[in-house]
Amino acid sequence: MWNQYLDTIEKIIKERKSVFTTTNAITERNKIPSNWNYPLKNNQWYKIKDVICVFVDMRNSTVLNAETYDKSTASVYEFFTWTAIRFFHDFWASYIDIKWDWVFALFNHDEVFKALAAAITFKTFAGDIFMKKMKRKFPTIDVGFHMWIDQKVVLVKQIWLKDDVSRDSRKNEVWAWKPINMAAKLSSKSKDRQLLISERFYKKIKNEELVTKSCWCKDGEKSNETDDLWTEIDVSDDNKYDFNKAYLLESEWCSNHGEKWCKDILNLD
Predict the structure, then answer these.
(1) Helix segments in 36-129, DSSP class H
(2) pTM summary value
(3) What angle do CA 77, 258, 141 make, to 5 degrees?
(4) How far is the C-alpha of 214 from the C-alpha of 217, rounded, in Å?
(5) 65 versus 58: which is more confidently predicted?
(6) For a surface tag, which of 29, 195, 198, 247 has the fewest beta carbons within 10 Å of its beta carbon?
(7) Cα torsion angle, 180, 188, 144, 202, sign
(8) Is residue 11 one of the residues assigned to a domain?
């Protein structure tokens, strides 16, 4: 059997098998660790309650051509992903990560409205600025974005490897379970200029009119009417979900009251 592997690889496999059969130590926490204080040792994990994941993904990025149009492709990726990172940082996300053309930001269980305000802010930017600039610069390319928010318990630890002096330490955080995985897999269900949220996240915001009703502007004119902002979607027939309903938001920050609305929403946490 072991003739398949180099001796060094055989040693790694035996070590990992031994770790796999050892009982894990789980430490429960109320919030995401600060100052990168994540478990490093084998079989030690943090369990953090109701972590909120805001996930954004560049739609159809595969049409970009890094071989022929390297400078243009690089500028698109940087415009989308770097802006997302800066936005989420400005909204005090506890953790931000980037993979390929998608970014996820994590917020604590008591930062529901902060996470929502961050998501709507990026949604407004992506719809009003990113997509419009893409259409002007690349009129034949169809590139957009997907967005999703979910919230549930997660497990986390840091995978860390210190190699010889010729290479840097290699480390990254592993976030296990529903919110990140669900958001990553299911964000594609949303379309451009839409934000989808899970039923469990919607339950945290549904009683607050600031985020469920529109302001009094309609097409730039003042109105005494308000509209419900969220559309309920039945997902009970899709076994990829562990909830029966999702909620869809299509509106963005109002050009007249968006800044005030955002500040007021941030004060709800």
Answers:
(1) 70-77, 83-90, 112-125
(2) 0.88
(3) 30
(4) 8
(5) 58
(6) 29
(7) negative
(8) no
Residue 15 lies in a domain: no
230-257 confidence digits (pLDDT tens): 999 998 888 888 889 999 999 899 888 8
What b/e readout covers 14-33, taking b as 16+ CB neighbours within 10 angstroms? eeeeeeeeeeeeeeeeeebb
Q: How many domains does one find in the chain?
A: 1
In a domain, 80, yes or no: yes
Could you give the CA distance from residue 143 to residue 134 in angstroms, rounded to a whole number?
Answer: 7
Question: How many CB atoms are closer than 10 A to CB 93?
Answer: 23
Cα separation, 32 vs 35, in Å, equals 10
Rounded to an integer, what is the distance from CA 172 to the centroid of its chain? 17
Any idea what the CATH number is for the domain that residue 87 is in?
A: 3.30.70.1230
Neighbours of 160 (CB within 10 A): 14
d(CA 158, CA 171): 7
pLDDT digits (tens, 9 = 90+) for 167-225: 667 778 888 877 777 666 666 677 778 899 999 999 999 999 999 987 767 554 554 45
Q: Which residue has the tokens 């529903």?
A: 178
Q: Determine the structural domain holding residue 134 and report its residue range.
A: 24-33+43-266
Cα–Cα distance for residue pair 128/123, rounded to 1 Å? 8
What backbone phi and psi angles, to 5 degrees, belong to 8?
A: -65, -35
**185: which 2 tokens?**
């897999």
